Amino acid sequence: MAAGPQTLGSSDVGSDLLGSGTITGDETSSATAILERAGLVTTAPGEGDLVSPDMTTASRTNGTANGVSGGHKLRELPPLGSGDGSSGRPLIAVMGCVVQDIVVKPNGPLTANGSTMSRIAFAAGGFGPNVAWTAALEGAAVRFVGHAGADAVGAALMGSLQAAGIDVAVTQKGTTCCVLVLVEWDGQRTMAYDTSSFCLSAADVTEEQLADVALLHLYENMFDDLTADGAWRAVQLVRRNGGMISLDVGNIARVQLVGEEAFKARIAEIAPEVLFANEEEAAALWPDGNISAPGLVVVKHGPLPSVVYAPDGEELFNVHVPPVPEVVDTTGAGDAMAGGFLAAWASGCTLQEAVEAGHRTAGAVVSQLGAQLPSEWVPSRPIGHSAR
What we know:
By secondary structure, the chain is an alpha/beta fold. It has nine helices and 14 strands. Helix content is 26%, strand content 22%. It has one domain (6-365): 3-Layer(aba) Sandwich (UDP-N-acetylmuramoyl-L-alanine:D-glutamate ligase). Residues 1-71 and 382-388 have low confidence and may be disordered.
């Protein structure tokens, strides 16, 4: 095990935290300008100034990136920036932790104080790696940033990501995080996890790791105490370079722990262009049914149609979910949906096409044991193809 934190694919910037940590409206205007040139948003006179302040609070004092309070009306996916310089495709960065999944699906009811024959699989996991894996297999240019254990298991899991064509730029420290997934007969799952070594300081997240990133995807729990400084640092670096953010609520337990109002305030601070939530999370955040967020909101309803909302809560459309012959394991379904969606977004697809792509990848994942698509996966569409 390494004696201390090690960074893969980047240099340690130590205490260089972008000076005061404040980003002015001039530095962050490029994302809004792209949207306005494309005719995807309008800005009310005198509104829409964006301030993304220090990385620990990241409060915005004059509106949001694309939100209602800034006078914007977003109804379609905004175009991502130019390619990463090597592939010519917009670069997606996914932030998270490399995790070892141990998936257990008993052949029958568990016997107290006894033993039960089960299917047991060891698989790469973690919400960030799962999203990155799916997006890469769907043809996107992907970089995984965040944390990996400084041990043999962590090295092997990073190797599997690299084999899928993912650029891995992480901080290695501690032991590899592990999740035990207990899958019931109907494919629903319960998890127990040890992520005690998962922490990211601002110094763990470098400019090099986020260089050329057009879109950063992360989950709300990245803004928890042990990883909050690193997450805000990533958001700050991407925003100041004109990049966009997508955020997944990720866990109903987090909404309950943080609280409805505090959770929504955090979403407003992050100001994602796209927010993902499942029906339970959406009900907890907006119990009155009046959905409102800085950007577009995609609410997933399992096998029922997903519903897409504009920032002001207007229901834009429903997207049918193709039936799955057999649900084997729902672990990673939301991650696969996000990965397919982000890859479609990066390829220039419309909002509806992106949701459809996400449904396809999610449907494939729930049809197998484990949270990641098979490595021989065939992409949903030729790279760069869209009906737009």
